[in-house]
Write a structure and sequence with these properties.
mainly beta; 5 helices; 20 strands; globular; disordered C terminus; Peptidase S1
Length: 285
């Protein structure tokens, strides 16, 4: 496979967290997209579920960047991300869906790692590849604040599409995935990275690599988790990104490497959160 979306998305996915007064923290997942301005200026956008930011009351959060040393070893390097200016949110929210986006000034390694916007699924993507129930997709996130290792890389999960039909997104804005979802997963990318899928009506194979959407909810009924995730289509990520172009004088938020919250050392990424608010509960869509 010439290009591996799973590895690239792992590099582009970050933990978002905000300490809570009782010593616990609110945790969510976000990922970076490269989306130039209408004038062609490079721009790095952080995408997550809107409720992740909404459940963070303070003006700043931490974004879990990672740094690779000269010896090749990665280390967790969370930095401060301003998400509010007083009572004014610095992110834009989709008017009807649980999607948020904000422009960030990321370290050079993460600017390079940001996923090009053209890898977000379009309205016809599911039909073009003849995708449906039973097809496997993957998701990245930080369940209960856990990471894959002390360097802060996200945990990769896999599950099968559990609903039908999947398109059009205007009629079916979300779809179901059969896999366990935990607080901390919200906002993580859901994607397909298949190297040899048969073309519809042909014996030829093709690479199928695209971001299908982001995880926004888990299904819970009468207090019981059903181990089903709800994915919001990438169409609504695209629409949220378009809202950034309508802002008067786009403001870049500062999230530079090496600037952590004074007096609040970063909690090790492999430590489970005591309190979490990263996945909304829902009995239905």
């Amino acid at each position: 496979m010439a290009w591996d979306l799973s590895v690239d998305l792992i590099k582009a996915t970050v933990q978002l967290e905000q300490p809570v007064g009782d010593g616990s923290r609110t945790v969510g997942t976000g990922f970076l997209i490269s989306d130039p301005t209408p004038g062609g200026k490079p721009r790095t956008i952080l995408v997550t579920a809107a409720h992740v930011f909404e459940k963070m009351p303070a003006m700043s959060a931490k974004i879990g960047y990672r740094v690779q040393g000269k010896d090749g070893v990665w280390r967790f390097d969370p930095t401060t991300l301003k998400i509010r200016d007083g009572d004014h949110p610095l992110w834009v929210k989709h008017p009807t869906r649980d999607v948020a986006a904000m422009e960030v000034e990321a370290p050079p390694e993460f600017v390079k790692a940001a996923i090009p916007i053209n890898y977000l699924a379009q309205d016809d993507t599911f039909n073009r590849y003849n995708l449906g129930p039973g097809d496997e997709m993957m998701a990245l996130g930080f369940p209960r604040g856990l990471s894959a290792n002390p360097a802060g890389f996200p945990i990769l999960r896999a599950g099968r599409v559990a609903s039908y039909p999947l398109a059009p997104a205007t009629s079916f804005p979300t779809f179901l995935m059969d896999f366990s979802v935990f607080p901390g997963n919200s906002g993580g990318p859901v994607f397909m990275a298949e190297g040899a899928r048969r073309r519809p009506g042909s014996n030829q194979t093709q690479e199928v690599q695209f971001v299908a959407g982001l995880l926004t909810q888990q299904v819970e009924l009468s207090g019981e988790r059903l181990e089903i995730g709800i994915v919001t289509h990438a169409k609504f990520i695209r629409e949220t990104l378009a809202l950034l172009d309508k802002l008067p004088g786009a403001t870049v938020t500062q999230a530079k490497a090496g600037k952590t919250v004074k007096g609040d050392p970063p909690m090790p990424p492999a430590t489970p959160a005591v309190a979490i608010s990263a996945t909304a509960m829902a009995a239905s869509r």
